[in-house]
Write a structure and sequence with these properties.
Distance between the termini: 51 Å
Strand content: 15-25%
Radius of gyration: 38 Å
Structural class: alpha+beta
Shape: flat
Number of strands: 2
Low-confidence stretches: none
Mean pLDDT: 81
Amino acid sequence: MKMKPIRLIVPGCLVLLAGCSLSSTYLRPELPAGPHWSTAAAGGAAQASNDHWWLAFGDANLDKLVSDVIGRNNEVLIAAANAYPARLQADIAAHALLPKLDGQVGGSTSQSLNDKVASSSWSASTSVSYEIDLW
């Protein structure tokens, strides 16, 4: 007697689903931190970041050197120069998401050789299109 494939598929799926439920509950281990450990600075206030740390030395020569380095940092200037074309490419890509508007205007005048009457025709057309981006 042949066994139907459904009789093999259903128990196989049940075994696979039962295997997913064998995970135990994760318990986070305790980290050994001493009693002196504290995330706050002394006095209870958080320590602020000082962007102009070199001013604390009170040295005019150091102040001039650091300002020269910041002003003439070629890597920063190169990064800024590279960012400009990237920003333009991003703008071009963003414009592709906007609706498109197109318009045409035309006109013509004609006169036959036998008649002295001229005829004119004018036309104008516009179109608007928008592509819906689903993905």
